[in-house]
Design brief:
It contains eight helices and eight strands. The longest helix is centred in the first third of the chain and has 14 residues, at 38-51. It has helices at 38-51, 71-78, 100-108, 124-137, 169-178, 180-183, 199-206, 227-238, and strands at residues 4-10, 54-60, 85-92, 113-119, 141-145, 188-191, 194-196, 217-219.
Length: 270
């Protein structure tokens, strides 16, 4: 019984140097912004690839990953499993300088790396320097402009705060079915050993804003559950028709070509 997932997200840190009003996981609105330890990161990778045979894209996101002081070590750890995923996608807000140690790891595995540079126009000199360093190192990258006119994908989606909508089950199932994360086969997020369908689910439950239901996540680090049982649990989770977080979502995410869009990257005042 082999399980393959198209996208799995690891978040070395939930800390960020920006305060974006429409942050998808509401980082600036809450004080709980944990770092992953190197040990936890390594344990998570091992547990993931014990259960999952293959991942299409292993995605490093946040927060802002470049704020983690031991990021290079974590990235190097990912490539111990380089034969188990197709690509590593690295997401940055273009407002934190790339460190040399991080660039060296990415460059050493450049055939499997894609860096997504989401530029919010906050620190243009840092953005320009980062793009130049990526170019010089031969690291594939994609530039996403999220300020001013002609924003990438016409901006962001506002899914609101973690407020329950008390929808009937059928409506939440419709929200789940139309969600872009679900349409892509899941945008699976892992933190503290918990594996959730989306970042909003894992963020909402860790903040205590969304109920943590056993049927909505897989505990990859549960020592009392065998690998085979975890695989069965994951297959059951992959077949659900909605999760608790759906009722705490505005339901506007939709697919990329139909979702309602708003200007991205607008900064909240301190």
């Amino acid at each position: 019984m082999n399980v393959t997932l198209p996208n799995v997200n690891l978040t070395p840190t939930m800390r960020c140097n920006l305060r974006c009003a429409l942050c998808g996981v509401l980082v600036p609105q809450y004080e709980y912004r944990p770092h992953m330890t190197v040990q936890e990161f390594s344990q998570t990778l091992g547990a993931l690839f014990a259960v999952v045979e293959r991942v299409g894209r292993l995605q490093i996101t946040g927060g802002e990953p470049l704020l983690h002081p031991e990021l290079a070590s974590m990235l190097a750890d990912c490539f111990r499993y380089g034969d188990r995923f197709d690509e590593l996608w690295f997401f940055s807000n273009c407002a934190v300088p790339f460190r040399q140690d991080v660039l060296e790891v990415l460059a050493a595995h450049q055939d499997q790396v894609m860096v997504h540079c989401s530029d919010y126009g906050v620190r243009p000199e840092v953005s320009a320097r980062n793009l130049r360093l990526l170019e010089e190192a031969g690291i594939r990258h994609k530039y996403l402009k999220y300020y001013g006119e002609d924003q990438y994908c016409d901006g962001w989606v506002d899914n609101g705060d973690f407020v329950p909508h008390h929808r009937p089950r059928a409506e939440n199932e419709a929200v789940f079915a139309a969600c872009s994360h679900v349409c892509r086969g899941g945008s699976w997020y892992i933190r503290h050993g918990q594996m959730h369908w989306c970042g909003r689910s894992i963020r909402g439950t860790e903040l205590g804003k969304v109920p943590l239901r056993q049927e909505d996540y897989l505990d990859l680090l549960d020592p009392g559950t065998s690998v085979e049982e975890k695989r069965r649990q994951l297959e059951t989770l992959m077949a659900v028709r909605s999760i608790a977080a759906c009722d705490y979502c505005g339901g506007l995410y939709g697919t990329e070509d139909t979702a309602e869009r708003r200007p991205a990257g607008e900064q909240l005042e301190c």
